[in-house]
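Researcher: Predict the fold of Collectin-10.
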Amino acid sequence: MMQLLVLSLLVAMFSYTSASPEVCSNVLVPGAKGDQGETGEEGGEGKLGKDGPPGLPGVPGEPGLKGEVGHAGKMGPIGDNGDKGDKGLDGPTGFKGRPGTTCDCGRYRKVVGQLDVNIGKLRNAVKFVKNVVLGLRETEERYYLLVKEPKRFREASVNCKLRGGTLAMPKTANTNRIMADYISQAGLTRAYIGVQAQNRDTVGTISHVYVDSSPLQGFASWSPEEELHFRSSPVTNSTCVELLSSGTWSHVECEASMFFICEFPKSRRRGGGGERGTAASTSEH
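Model: Structure tokens for Collectin-10 follow.
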């Protein structure tokens, strides 16, 4: 009985599948639209988007209040000169002055002319005293005196200082020639001048200085033989210098006694100046 029932069921299922025109498919067919659901809760804040395009210019605002006065700026450049103003009114007339004196111009010219003559005579007299009586020589800046008293170098230097000067320092060829002629015209052959050798340095070089401690620069009157001899064979005490009448310099022992030349700067006084130290030299000449 049970087998008959199962067999009947299988026959019925086969008949139904054979008679159905539809084909079985895996595609899901959407159903009808359902009813609208309830509104959900508000979500969180999203990310900031990009800046949008600039908007249109707004309406101009009202003018603001006037600000405080600022600091004064720097002074500007000077402007051009203005136009000349109108002429002012004439002032009141002054009081009448005292009558002047008559000028005797001819008389004053005569007096001035006589003064010029007297000044010329005085200059000639001074020149005669300097060159003949005192035997001085001079340049534009200095006087030179040949002292005919034999002294050693140090004594000669002190003697010139006591007279108000120093031992003569020929720093130019012209000054050297004047001093050399001075010696020659006095009938002498040599005289001390204010030049002295310094000690040798570590290299063995010997330098010379004037008595005012300034180094020899630009001028020296050594003979070639003298300069070579002193560099190669220096003598311990031959560090002083003499000027020969020929105009050349020579080393000499500082203990030797000989004549010397002093120099005196000219005074800077108004009117050409006189001489400084010359009065002291007259008693020694």
